[in-house]
Write a structure and sequence with these properties.
homodimer; 355 residues; alpha/beta; Rossmann fold; 15% strand
Chain lengths: 355, 355
């Protein structure tokens, strides 16, 4: 029994002013003061003491002194002594200007930290760790679904259903078609594995043209233009960085084949949404499936809601309400153990690169 | 070069009054008089002389005397001497009352022949052959897509998109969920293979509880009621027969779990569409993806067009415009060769059973 949980009535809503503190049965020297700041308005992805204890057991971790909060007062009370902060990126930017004199490690429970960039606010001694690796299984499902929907023309069928119009369109099976996937990290490689399982050929696009076992071939980002005309599907699955903002701009959209289709599971600002809508309205692409938007959530009245041959999912491609927190905590402990042992931390973020 | 094609200007629209006749270079004893009756109003699935020749080459068939038509006059001219008729079920019922004194084999280019039942019009000497086996690859794609869409709640997202409403719903990956598939023939086994590739457990439902390699387990149709409460997904993939009409009726829909989902790729009349719409409107199922309807096509104004959490595809789950005719002709020749050699024909239909 690695950790002892103090359950209290005031904990239940996860919004207690005083943070719940869980102290290990014997708090020994290797244990750390860890604060978990849960989202204030979202119980679904709040890390629970039960999830924490189960993760401690899986990792063989004992002796930590952990606190939970979901509001500013709880954060303020804990951050004065916390050595590790576990939080979503959205909370971090608002809260971290508070003094955190003992803080050594910041674990952000998201793979993409674009909302925190640039990292000029980050104290040099603070080790920043992201959640890359948490999204594989969900993303593989989403990618297979999006590619199959686009091959079958489901976005057009959903349009037709709105107008009570029976408009069949017959296509060959997806096997043998070609997907270009921008990004070969956690998300991109999950997309590639899903595509390959369907018989789809995959080209990965990454910073340098280093081979990757999940892709049939890899090209450097500088050669993206040459890959676009050969793409039946273009999937954006990379982080949003200065170098990738507006990557799929109007000119590059024009390099895709007439009946190509677009998937975005990275960030909305990776593509020129207006240019995409223009092409879809002109019938110049066969369809698009978007899960991320700029702004995100997509506000009512935005033209994308009514763009033809476009299917919108509300940023659900990666998050798993059952598996997300356990997988996140496993990633956290793998990194904590590497840090403690002086090994390279698999998820440490280079603030200059942003990933 | 197994067949010699007489191309003619009048052939191009496939609606010539006089049937186009292709005669083998040397029409020898083993060759047969084969008439291909193409659909009158559908060029997409019309069998072309080029497809016929390619299939002859693949099968090593020579010496046949083949005619093509797409109208009644062409049919009348050919049927007087034809020994084999290749046609869609829709054409057959309208045309076959014409005298066909030499006809030995009728190859219907559809897997389900429900529209031809009962077979009281079928001369006893006529061998009826269906197209079972042609749909596997397309059906596997469709089944994977439908299961993934239902797991992710895409039908609800399409509803929300209509109302410009951002309504996320987060679910675990599909792996480990449970699909019950009614039918273990060509379609059902393709569904099962697709489901297993996603990590979905599969129960097959067939006439008798004989094991089937594509399913984790098989139950007899008489035990369907016991399988329903364990089903995350119920997939109808069986022929429409007197015994399967209205199989998923109001009572059986009530045996499914509250958040189960329904897929129909068989025939519309396999389920009680009104009862399904009632449950979806009451929020008692998580969604449905339907590709077949009663009536089919679904007419404007039908309540299913606006049923919530229902995604409609217009009977496209099985047809592949590039691969369909070649695969159909390969099945035809496999059966013709079995017939010629006195072997059991893999696609021969038992008129009493209907499949």
């Amino acid at each position: 029994m690695p950790c002892f949980v103090t359950e209290s009535q005031s904990f239940r809503p996860l919004r207690a002013v005083a943070p719940l503190v869980i102290r290990a049965g014997a708090w020994h020297g290797s244990g750390m003061r860890i604060h978990i700041q849960n989202p204030a308005a979202d119980d679904l992805f709040a890390i629970t003491p039960a999830q924490w204890n189960a993760a401690c057991a899986r990792a063989g971790e004992t002796g930590h002194h952990v606190s939970f909060a979901a509001d500013g007062a709880g954060f303020a009370a804990a951050i004065a002594t916390a050595e590790v902060l576990i939080a979503q990126p959205g909370s971090v930017r608002a809260l971290l200007p508070l003094a955190a004199p003992a803080l050594r490690i910041l674990f952000c429970t998201a793979a993409g930290l674009d909302r925190l960039m640039p990292f000029d606010w980050l104290p040099p001694r603070l080790v920043l760790v992201n959640n890359r690796g948490v999204h594989g299984a969900k993303m593989a499902d989403y990618a297979a679904m999006a590619l199959l929907m686009l091959n079958a023309r489901v976005p057009a069928f959903a349009d037709a259903q709105r107008h009570q119009r029976w408009a069949p369109h017959f296509v060959p099976p997806i096997s043998g078609r070609h997907a270009t996937v921008v990004g070969a990290g956690d998300l991109g490689s999950a997309v590639a594995r899903a595509a390959r399982a369907l018989g789809v050929r995959t080209t990965g696009v990454r910073t340098r043209a280093e081979p990757h076992p999940d892709f049939h071939r890899v090209v450097a980002i500088g050669d993206l233009d040459a890959a676009l005309p050969e793409s039946d599907f273009l999937v954006l699955a990379c982080p949003l960085l200065p170098a990738t903002r507006n990557l799929l701009d109007r000119r590059r959209l024009g390099l895709l084949p007439h009946d190509a289709a677009v998937v975005n599971v990275g960030r909305g600002a990776l593509l020129d949404q207006d240019a995409l809508a223009d092409r879809l309205e002109a019938g110049e692409l066969s369809g698009a499936v978007l899960d991320v938007f700029d702004p995100d959530p997509l506000p009512p009245g935005h033209r994308l809601w009514t763009t033809p041959n476009l299917l919108i999912t509300p940023h659900i491609s990666t998050d798993d309400p059952i598996g997300y927190n356990p997988a996140s905590l496993d990633i956290f402990f793998a990194n904590l153990q590497a840090w403690r042992e002086g090994r390279s931390m698999p998820n440490r973020v280079d603030p200059r690169r942003g990933y």
